[in-house]
């Protein structure tokens, strides 16, 4: 098994109401100089390693994990160091 | 909800009562916003409408907010289920979410003074899963139809331990369970952890032996974990096995009925006598218009639209009277009947005068029910106090409970359920004693359903009941002094009961267009609320003094009545005084006895102030 | 007319929808159809009710879209059957690709339950023929994610093809062009966030939702007279 | 300004109904060998660089971005390569 990290954000140009709200809250809590906040998803999963791993991950992302109409995704595969 | 559907009833409505500190710190604002979102998130998802409730803000809840929830269900008598573990040899089954380590010691946490140490303990909080709850609900309502189901109970506080012990105790039986069979979502859980876990959305069932597959079938359909984990015995012991060993074997009664009764000391606090001795008088009011506007902006009085807009109060399409009136009303599909429901409790009165305050709380809830055209049926109470080990606090509990129970007897409203939350203290400071009353009433015919908003111009405005000179615990006092003291308005329960009957009779006679009881802010606020959000106004004549306008004396109502019904109304309710009429010019005008207006504001402005207060506080910076 | 009301785990407006169709149209058959059903081919109109299918976990409608019944819904949609998705039903239809766009969280991030003004933008549809263009209805909304989003090109297409059926009179949730309900290009699939099934009787606050159901029925009847 | 990425997940032992639902859904879509799915948040923000940067980020996480009762967070600071 490998650890897969999928990162999902709204596409550029899509207004992010959650990001805006967080930005606003941070500033009203007194944190200055915080900008361009965006709130996305970080999905972690363990997937069987082997042939076609990347194709499988991409399929999962396109089919379920992200909504291609408004979201972009990237991912990272983490192989545990073999002892 | 689980307590309700495990009886075989379908939850039809939720209500909640909230207590927070003033919205002047970011922390309280954060808590308030998140709690409301949390209640909304769960109820909305399960699909049970949240139709009512109440919110009050007071310093005493700064470090210790209160959230009390009430659920109302509808049941066909033949489906009534009991949480009993009867029938030796019958199978004990587990249904619902799997067990994790969440909420271990939750019950003790709920009744514990908050301190540094308990902060560290907090990871024991459970995360609710409303989607699972919805499936458990639907599955349970199918399960209760089965002949083979003997008993069913929610795994609430202290989880498997209390549910199994209570079910066995009620049946006079015992239970054997093999904990290895409990569905688990974490690894290496010990028997101790499994027995005390307060993971949510779980039910314990007793099923006739040999019929387990009927249960499994329904659970599989709803995609729920299900397992046969034990059996009913006749030895009156709770016996637990784990890895083939007996890990506990205790008499059931030791866990339930034989619990020691705790005798604690009750001492009347000196402040009580002091308050009774000094009668607080309001500072003289120069601008009544401004005072009314200030009162309307008090968060406790202001519109709670910001809150109930977030609750789906319409799902199931039974809600006839949506939030914003005295009580919510839901029709019962297929009948002429409807149910009215409300939650109430004014802890300031109880703080100053617990016995009288306890009576006031029950009476106010009943008045709200009556105003909507319903006869009070029964109530549930949520008792929130500080540490009962403090003699002064125990005294508050004793006195307020006595007051409530007197009121329940006089008003013929049985207390059919409730809950208790103690040790609501932060760093030694207790909350105000806060019993909350949830009441349900029956509308015999949907034609009787009455709302608080005035209906049309030309209707006459009547008041029933007089103000008083006691302002202890009133909103006016809090606004002027920022603290409460003195004598609270007294209630005469016999007057209360007879007026309630009279009001209900008059509403049922069909001559009342709208009805509203007087509460925080008194007559002036109640009158304004009759036209809030409408395009109507009103013109009334009232003597220019605080007692008339802002007294919170109990057992009082405002009505609007069609001019053509006035004679009949007056003959039914001779005590009510006509004070003016509803107008179509959208101005709220109060004249003195010489025809001079001393309150004069547009409905639109008053509505804006009243609706804007809470959103405005939430947006404001620290 | 035979009507189906699809029930997913977590649907909670299914009963309300059922009553709206059954009590206010002359449909001969109205039935609940579980998410596990393989076919809805027997029905003339398919209603996908609101709620929180699969808890709305991950994204609203994301998981429901893969329920077995949705394959058949897509097939019937392609054949021109009438499909109505309300609230969560709309979100599911978007996730399934039967309607364009996606829903974001409401602009102020709060769930909103309130009766709002709804304007008929297109009354030449099988869903709104019994309304008049420009009619303003009072219909409840109850959603946390109804903030309609799509790219400019898709939006232009919606306008060009008259696919926008309902708009909000006021900007309640941040939706682009204040869109409250749209249909597909072919005009047989409707998605709307407001709940017409909650606006069926005056004592519920409004009966402005009725004509949606009677329009759907009327369309079916007219088609049937022609084909028979 | 530096780019800050904050990654938030539920603490171990805390129920993750979203993760479960996604796992279940992936498996019913025919993706085999997918395990331990968890759904967390990925928040991106631009923050003014300078003294106390890490303390400021940690404070924001504890106060607002994460709910320390049930969530853990990690973060990463990304300085844009100076040209
Ligand atoms: N203040 C109260 N007034 C009336 N009944 C109460 C009160 N507190 C608890 N009860 C009743 O006692 C029973 C056990 O309540 P509680 O200990 O709160 O259990 P649970 O954890 O199942 O809610 C319930 O039937 C409840 O309604």
Distance between the termini of chain B: 37 Å
Q: In whole angstroms, how far apart are the ends of chain C?
A: 14 Å
Q: Helix share of residues of chain B? A: 25-40%
Number of strands of chain C: 11
Q: What is the H level of CATH, i.e. the homologous superfamily of chain C? A: Class I glutamine amidotransferase (GATase) domain
The computed structural class of chain B is alpha+beta
C-alpha Rg of chain C (nearest Å): 16 Å
User: Could you state the order of secondary-structure elements of chain C as H and E?
Assistant: EHEEHEHEEEEHEEEH
Total helical segments of chain B: 21
CATH class of chain C: Alpha Beta
Percent strand of chain C equals: 25-35%
Strand order of the largest sheet of chain C: 2-1-3-4-11-10-9-6-7
Mean pLDDT of chain C: 96
Would you spell out the secondary-structure blueprint of this structure?
The complex is a heterotetramer, with two copies of chain A (83 residues), one copy of chain B (622 residues) and one copy of chain C (228 residues).
Chain A: E1 2-10, H1 17-28, E2 34-47, H2 53-65, E3 71-78
Chain B: H1 2-5, E1 10-20, H2 26-46, E2 50-57, E3 66-74, E4 91-96, H3 106-110, H4 116-121, H5 130-143, E5 149-154, H6 159-171, E6 174-178, H7 191-196, E7 202-207, H8 212-221, E8 225-233, E9 237-242, E10 245-251, H9 252-255, H10 270-277, H11 288-297, H12 305-308, E11 319-321, E12 328-331, E13 338-344, H13 347-352, H14 354-371, E14 375-384, H15 391-411, E15 415-421, E16 425-426, E17 429-430, E18 434-443, E19 460-464, H16 475-481, H17 493-508, E20 514-517, H18 522-531, E21 537-541, H19 546-550, E22 557-561, H20 566-572, E23 577-583, E24 587-591, E25 597-602, H21 603-619
Parallel strand pairs in B: 1-2, 6-9, 14-15, 21-24
Antiparallel strand pairs in B: 1-3, 4-7, 4-8, 5-7, 6-8, 9-10, 11-12, 12-13, 13-18, 14-18, 16-17, 19-22, 19-23, 20-22, 21-23, 24-25
Chain C: E1 2-7, H1 14-24, E2 29-34, E3 45-48, H2 68-78, E4 82-86, H3 88-95, E5 102-104, E6 112-120, E7 136-143, E8 147-149, H4 152-160, E9 164-168, E10 179-183, E11 189-192, H5 210-227
Parallel strand pairs in C: 1-2, 1-3, 3-4, 4-11
Antiparallel strand pairs in C: 5-8, 6-7, 6-9, 9-10, 10-11
């Amino acid at each position: 098994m490998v650890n897969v990290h999928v990162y999902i954000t709204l596409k550029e140009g899509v207004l992010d109401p959650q990001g805006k709200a967080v930005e606003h809250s941070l500033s009203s809590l007194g944190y200055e100089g915080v900008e361009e906040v965006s709130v996305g998803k970080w999905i972690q999963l363990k997937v069987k390693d082997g042939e076609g791993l990347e194709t499988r991950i991409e399929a999962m992302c396109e089919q379920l994990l992200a909504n291609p109409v408004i979201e972009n995704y990237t991912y990272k595969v983490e192989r545990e160091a073999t002892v | 909800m689980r307590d309700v559907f495990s009886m075989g009833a379908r939850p039809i409505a939720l209500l909640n009562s909230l207590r927070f500190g003033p919205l002047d710190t970011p922390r309280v604002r954060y808590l308030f916003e998140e709690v409301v979102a949390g209640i909304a998130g769960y109820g909305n998802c399960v699909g049970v409408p949240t139709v009512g409730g109440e919110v009050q803000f007071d310093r005493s809840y700064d470090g210790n907010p209160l959230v009390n929830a009430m659920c109302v269900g509808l049941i066909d008598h033949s489906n009534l289920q009991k949480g009993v573990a009867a029938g030796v040899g019958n199978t004990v089954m587990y249904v619902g979410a799997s067990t994790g380590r969440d909420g271990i010691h939750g019950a003790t946490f709920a009744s514990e003074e908050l301190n540094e140490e308990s902060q560290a303990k907090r990871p024991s909080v459970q995360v609710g899963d409303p989607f699972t709850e919805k499936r458990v609900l639907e599955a349970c309502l199918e399960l209760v139809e089965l002949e083979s189901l003997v008993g069913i109970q929610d795994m609430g506080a202290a989880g498997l331990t209390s549910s199994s012990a209570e079910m066995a105790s009620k049946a006079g039986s015992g239970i054997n369970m093999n904990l290895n069979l409990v569905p688990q979502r974490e690894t290496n859980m010990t028997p101790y952890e499994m027995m005390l876990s307060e993971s949510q959305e779980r039910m314990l069932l007793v099923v006739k032996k040999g019929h387990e597959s009927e249960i499994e079938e329904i659970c599989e359909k709803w995609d729920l974990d299900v397992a046969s984990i034990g059996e009913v015995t006749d030895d009156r012991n709770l016996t637990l096995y784990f890895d083939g060993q007996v890990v506990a074997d205790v008499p059931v009664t030791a866990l339930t009925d034989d619990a020691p009764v705790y005798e604690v000391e009750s001492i009347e606090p000196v402040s009580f006598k002091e308050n009774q001795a000094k009668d607080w008088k309001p500072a003289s009011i120069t601008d009544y218009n401004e005072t009314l506007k200030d009162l309307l902006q008090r968060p406790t009085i202001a519109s709670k639209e910001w809150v109930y807009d977030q609750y789906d109060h319409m799902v199931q399409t039974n809600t006839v009277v949506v939030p914003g009136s005295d009580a919510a009303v839901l029709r019962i599909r297929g009948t002429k009947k409807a149910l009215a429901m409300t939650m109430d409790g004014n802890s300031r009165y109880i703080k100053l005068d617990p016995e009288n305050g306890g009576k006031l709380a029950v009476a106010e809830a009943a008045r709200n029910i009556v105003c909507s055209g319903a006869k009070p049926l029964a109530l549930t109470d949520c008792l929130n106090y500080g540490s009962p080990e403090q003699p002064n606090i125990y005294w508050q509990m004793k006195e307020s409970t006595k007051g409530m129970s007197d009121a329940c007897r006089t008003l013929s409203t049985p207390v059919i359920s409730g809950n208790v939350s103690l040790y609501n203290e932060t760093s030694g400071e207790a909350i105000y004693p806060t019993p909350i009353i949830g009441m349900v009433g029956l509308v015999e015919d949907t034609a009787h359903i009455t709302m608080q908003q005035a209906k049309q111009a030309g209707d006459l405005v009547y008041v029933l009941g007089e103000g008083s000179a006691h302002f202890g615990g009133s909103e006016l006092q809090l606004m002027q002094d920022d603290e409460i003291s003195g004598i609270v308005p007294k209630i005469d329960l016999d007057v209360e009961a007879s007026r309630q009957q009279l009001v209900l009779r008059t509403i049922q006679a069909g001559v009342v267009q709208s009805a509203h009881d007087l509460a925080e802010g008194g007559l002036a606020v109640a009158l304004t609320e009759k036209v809030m959000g409408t395009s109507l106004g009103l013109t009334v004549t009232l003597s220019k003094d605080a007692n008339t306008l802002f007294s919170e004396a109990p057992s009082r109502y405002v009505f609007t009545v069609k001019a053509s019904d006035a004679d009949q109304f007056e003959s039914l309710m001779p005590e009510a005084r006509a004070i003016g009429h509803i107008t179509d010019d959208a101005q709220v005008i109060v004249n003195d006895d010489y025809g001079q207006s001393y309150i004069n504001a547009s409905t639109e402005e008053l509505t804006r102030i009243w609706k804007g207060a809470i959103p405005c506080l939430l947006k404001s910076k620290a | 007319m035979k009507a189906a009301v699809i029930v997913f785990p977590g649907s909670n407006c299914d009963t309300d929808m059922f009553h709206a169709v059954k009590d206010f149209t002359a449909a001969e058959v109205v039935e609940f159809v579980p998410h596990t059903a393989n076919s809805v081919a027997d029905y003339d109109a398919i209603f996908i009710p609101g709620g929180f299918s699969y808890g709305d976990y991950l994204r609203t409608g994301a998981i429901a879209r893969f329920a077995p019944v949705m394959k058949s819904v897509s097939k019937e949609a392609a054949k021109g059957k009438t499909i109505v998705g309300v609230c969560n039903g709309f979100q599911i239809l978007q996730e399934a690709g039967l309607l364009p766009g996606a829903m974001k969280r409401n602009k102020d991030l709060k769930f909103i339950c309130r009766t709002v003004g709804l304007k008929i933008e297109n009354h030449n549809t099988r869903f709104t023929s019994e309304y008049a263009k420009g009619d303003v209805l009072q219909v409840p909304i109850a959603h946390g994610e109804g903030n309609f989003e799509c790219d400019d090109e898709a939006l232009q297409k919606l306008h060009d093809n008259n696919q926008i059926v309902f708009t909000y009179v006021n900007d309640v949730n941040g939706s682009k062009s204040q869109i409250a309900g749209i249909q597909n290009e072919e005009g047989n699939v409707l998605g709307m966030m407001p709940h017409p099934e909650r606006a069926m009787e005056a004592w519920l606050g409004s009966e402005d939702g009725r004509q949606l159901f009677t329009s759907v029925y009327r369309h079916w009847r007219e088609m049937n007279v022609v084909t028979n």
